[in-house]
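Researcher: Please predict.
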Amino acid sequence: MKTTLKALTLVAGTLFAGSAFSADLVCDVYPKGNGNAWGNGTKSCFGFDFSFGSSTSGRFYLKNVTKPIQEVRWSGAARCGKSSTSCGVTVRAYSSTTASALILYKDGTWEQTNTARASYETGH
């Protein structure tokens, strides 16, 4: 009985320790020219300019990471290398660009981040 309880405690502890929920995925949008950006460094960022273009640049990146990272598995619009903690993206005008990440830590734990959303509008 004691062995079963110890085993269950170990399994439950591993499952709950697997996701620490401390890291944040945030975004930045870089409007062209004299454009403005709001919310850079948060999970929802927005840019506006009068360039009349169809897109601008942006990035998603991890913030508040407290442990050494083994690998990052990006999803959504973020298509980066597994060792990258930052990911440049193209943010299309009048649509949202979203991303999230699964972080695998060197100590064997993992964490699924929030979904971050970058938006952009131009003078169309």
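Model: The CA atoms of residues 68 and 106 lie 6 Å apart.
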